[in-house]
Write a structure and sequence with these properties.
Helices cover 65% and strands 10% of the residues. With 462 residues, the protein is an alpha+beta fold. The strands form 2 sheets. The protein has a 4-stranded antiparallel sheet with strand order 2-3-5-6, with no helix packed on it. It has a two-stranded parallel sheet with strand order 1-4. Helix 2 crosses helix 4, helix 3 runs antiparallel to helix 4 and helix 8 crosses helix 9. The radius of gyration is 41 Å and the shape is elongated.
Length: 462
Amino acid sequence: MIRSQPLTNGSRLRIAMNCASIATRIAVRIVAGIAAVMIGIPAHAHAQVSLATVVDLAQRNSTGVRAAQADVSKASAVFSETRDAVFPSVNMITGVPVFPEVGFTGSPPSIWSVTVQSLVFGVPQKHYIDAAAMSVRAGTARLNETREQVALDASTAYIELDVVNQELDAVHQQEKFSARLVDIEQQRAEAGVDPLSDLLQAKLAAAEVKLKRMHLEGRAAVLEKQLAVLTGLPEGSIRIDHASIPEIPQVHGEIAAHEIAGVHASDLLARSKSLQAKADKEINYLPQLTFVAQYNRNTTILNNVNHYFANPLPTNNFSSGIEIQVPIFNMGQRAKARESGADALRAQVEYEQAQKQNELEIMDLNGNIRELDTQAEIANLKQQIADEQLKTVLTQLELGNGTGSGPGSSPQTSPKAEQQAQIDERQKTEDALDAGFELAKARLNLLRALGHMDDWLHELHK
């Protein structure tokens, strides 16, 4: 039978301290867990981000897009300002004289006055309004062009980073095979089987692979920085989602071109400048009609104006009429008309230049795509051949070459041949990835030159 001993004060104190310590540790862990949940993922943790998300973030974060949006807002304000000339403008003027008026001042003294004025008829103003409306459309087209360019830049950088990451994986494997080949050549050279030149050649190949890996790592860092600048996300926080990259359409120059945003913007701007020049010229010889109405609240306080009239000055005074402005001679306005004409001519030349440049770009890209398509096909075939050769070498290593050891028989496949086949297969894989990316980039540029960039953006958001 076990008898319980009564607890002393010291025992009770130790138990209490132990319980408090355990409770403290539990509380710290709970607080740390809550903090971790509240803080969430660290700011620089890698997160998989789709291509569609990168394009959307780039378009929202782009300074070029925001500047184009500001240009559209400005053009809209100019259009409203020009159009609102036909709406009555109301102005109220009031004031109190500093000193009492003495004598006849030439105008009736008033406490306040209200003036209403609006353009009734003016052919030049109609052209100004049409020019401003055309400018708004040109700004909108320029905004679309900027958004397409940002989408193209973001897509190209994203796809290239995906390709570079795949090439880095292949190079890392290639480095392992190169290091293994150097070890093999070192042993064979020490045994006198191979000459020293083979060892030096293996070391040279390993150094070249190292240099390629350093180049790819540097290119990956540049692309990560570019995507961070485009999207506004922290540098290095984007992890590529290969499955989010849709297949790029196999476009060619014979496809009917849609309306190109940049060329369309140049056309609209040229037409706007032409209307502006026409209005500046017509305002020199076409009259304009303006409606004017005015109300004055006159006062005889602080003045002796009634001494100069047969009847007392009335308190309420109202007048209205149609003003006809007939241009006679204005050298400044004529100089402005010549300036506007020169601007219109330059805008028309820029539109024609943009049109021709786009046609040349389509032709050039179409020729490049044909060549790149063939290069990609060749690179893929070489990669498949290298893969089959590697399989043959591995099979021979495992089962032997089956030719025997007599005179005239092929030498037995060695581990050296295996490493060389592995290195060659990885190299051909990298070449195929490079050729595929160059073809994809050319196709994206041709999509934009043909005005089919919206098709690509729709594919992203499916």
